[in-house]
Amino acid sequence: MHKIADVEIQHDIMVANRKLARRNQRIMDQNGVFSVDVLGAIGSGKTSLIETLIDHLEHKVGVIAGDVISKYDAGRFESHHVPVVGLNTGKECHLDAHLVKHALEELPLENIDLLFIENVGNLICPVDFDLGSHLRMVVISVSEGDDTVEKHPLIFQDADLVVINKIDIADAVGASVEKMVDDVKKLNPDVQVITSSLKTGKGLDEILAAIESYMS
User: At what angle do helices 46-56 and 204-215 cross, to 10 degrees?
Assistant: First the structure.
């Protein structure tokens, strides 16, 4: 009996989340805002990548910073002089459409045309929660191990863009970048995979071009 009740409750939650996600996207579309849900584990380089993109993209950027305690990453984004809303998830390990809805209400959407939504650092919990974004970008790093994709297949199956980061230290941590790329392609043959190093600048132009292509 308890198992059946849990499934029904979970189903209702997901249906409600999808409805809110569609509403979020309508709000953004009405305001001419393109949004990117940025997912990845802690330490993958999500925050640093978003900071770098803010400085290189010729767009009016805004950021929603989601985390258990969001003020740290939110503060980093604010230093780039863009509008930021921090979302504290507390014990929850992902953002949901309801939280994003409230963040959208606080942002000056009329002054934003590109919105980054930094999800909580996790490769499992955010998978099923659509936020209403136009693009799902998953960021992983070689420091997580070259079996990371194999261990977390679902998040890559739904990704629109995958960035394999910190490739400059692949040899030092004994990781095969080629294996990670192949593993992603096996799960999602059509997804664009970019290998990058923010330290050296490798892959940055490709990431910028990919985002621009989705916005056009």
Answer: 70
Residues 38 and 129: their CA atoms lie apart, in Å, by: 13
State residue 5's pLDDT score: 42
What's the full length of the chain, in residues?
A: 216
Domains assigned to the chain: 2-215 (3.40.50.300)
CB contact at 8 A, 112 and 28 = no
> Looking at this protein, which amino acid is placed at residue 180?
M
Alpha-carbon gap, residue 122 to 44, rounded angstroms: 10
For residue 103 the two structure tokens come to 């963040």
**Distance in angstroms between the alpha carbons of the first and the last residue of the chain:** 50
Cα 50 to Cα 82, 191, 198, 211, distances in angstroms: 12, 20, 11, 12
Angle, nearest 10°, between helix axes 2-30 and 97-106?
30
Collapsing DSSP states into helix, strand and coil, what is residue 40? strand
pLDDT at residue 29 greater than cutoff 60: yes
Placement of tokens 């799960």 in the chain? 187
